[in-house]
Amino acid sequence: MRAKLFLTTILLCSFFVSNAQTKYLKNTDEVRNLTKKATGYFQDNKIPAFFDEIKNYWPAPENELIALEEKTIKYINILEDRFGKSGEIVKVNEETIKDFALRETYILKFEHSAIRLKFTYFRNVNGWILNAFKWDDSFEQEFK
Prior knowledge:
By secondary structure, the chain is of the alpha+beta class. The protein has a single domain, classed as Nuclear Transport Factor 2, Chain: A (Roll), CATH 3.10.450. The protein is 44% helix and 30% strand. The chain has a four-stranded antiparallel β-sheet, covered by helices on one side. The N terminus is likely disordered. Keywords: Signal.
């Protein structure tokens, strides 16, 4: 019985340690500031700094964030070869669901095309957290 309790305690502790999120954003101004700072890192191809910035607010397992960071570095370098150097970043949309969800959409322009960055935040009892981040080269939906 004690062995099971001990093992369960160790597993729970390792889960909480492996979870990267350690902070909460207090309000939507802090949410917008985080997104603006993070998109600046993305624009400058400072992907490790980008993930260091957002991981404190994203309750995702550390190994998933590391894998996403590695894939992002790989594909951003391919995009720069294909689309040219990155340029201006433009906020194109902000959507809310009442007072508990916020999504910001940005377009990062390159010399020959662009990519879309989407940040979705959720407000829980402790504050705002990053609920999802996605980037892709499909920005057709932004034409409204």
